[in-house]
Amino acid sequence: IAPLALDYGVTKRLSLRVVVPYAESRDVSQLVLNRNGTGANVGRNPAYETTGAAVRASNGALIGQIESARAALAAEIARCTNATASGCDAVRANPAGAQALVSRAQQTRSHLVTVYGDGTRGGSPVVPLTGSTVHAAVVAGIAALRADFGAFGITNIAAGVQPAAATVVFGPGGIGTIAGDTSFGVGYRQLGNTRRAGVGDVDVTATLLLFDSFRADQVKRLLSPTRAVRSNVTLGWRFGTAGADRTEDAFDVPIGEGANALLVRSTTDILFNRWAWVSATVRAAQPMADRIAVSLPLRNEAGTFGAPVSAVSAARTLGRRLDVELAPRMSIGRRRSGYRFPRCRATCAAARAFRPR
Q1: pTM value?
Q2: For residue 350, is pLDDT > 60?
């Protein structure tokens, strides 16, 4: 932060101050998915790729075959309720099995549409990877369904038919792709490696000198052998010009709180002798309630991905802030002095990888 400050002395006891900070924030975090690019059992749904039209047509044909087989068996069940109907030996021998097969076909069709999609749209953004055990189980389930329908003389499902499996695995850069892909419903423009720069929150304050036994004499303050006291109070207003978090950036670091606030500060200097004195400062900031745009949570109780993420307006009330600072100071001779030297070390966070169960 590089603050630009303008001070104006109205009288000996009253001064005005305007602080316009220029702030810059950076985020260099990176999220890595499937670092080695191996071990995945799902990948990108090909229905959303460049060949998506052909893939959707193929999936739609499979869905149509299952639906036609289901409808044909349901019609046979209804026809065979007539005692004089012929060719009903298989249905009459196992009526419960025939009815269960109709229900199973309906469930299979619904699940395939949800995961893979149909002839007009894609389903889930990820589907089982080709050659994976999950995809093999899906293919085996369809084959078993075809065989069961064949037992009732219905051959609408072609041999070897299967939904389009994934051929592209999300690699180390997959998190960024997922975040910006509308099919996932996440809606972030980017993840990490962001930068913001601009004017932060602007402070306008007025300071009143309450008491000064130095009588504004700097020489007297430095050379006085006796105790002395000086105290002032500051009132001000903070304009939340920095803006709040950007909803399209998950790791956005704002350049200010972006909220209006009432500011109060009081500073008192107590001089003990020529070489020792202390400064005490109390600061308080009371932010005002406002409304900001926030993104709805990505995860819900039902699954990893909830409804498509969208920005909504939310009421925000920042907490009151109170700071108390005591700064003892000591002078060694007339040309050397020791003050408080704060130092802030770099902050870092490390997260260990985990495997979802």
Answers
A1: 0.58
A2: no
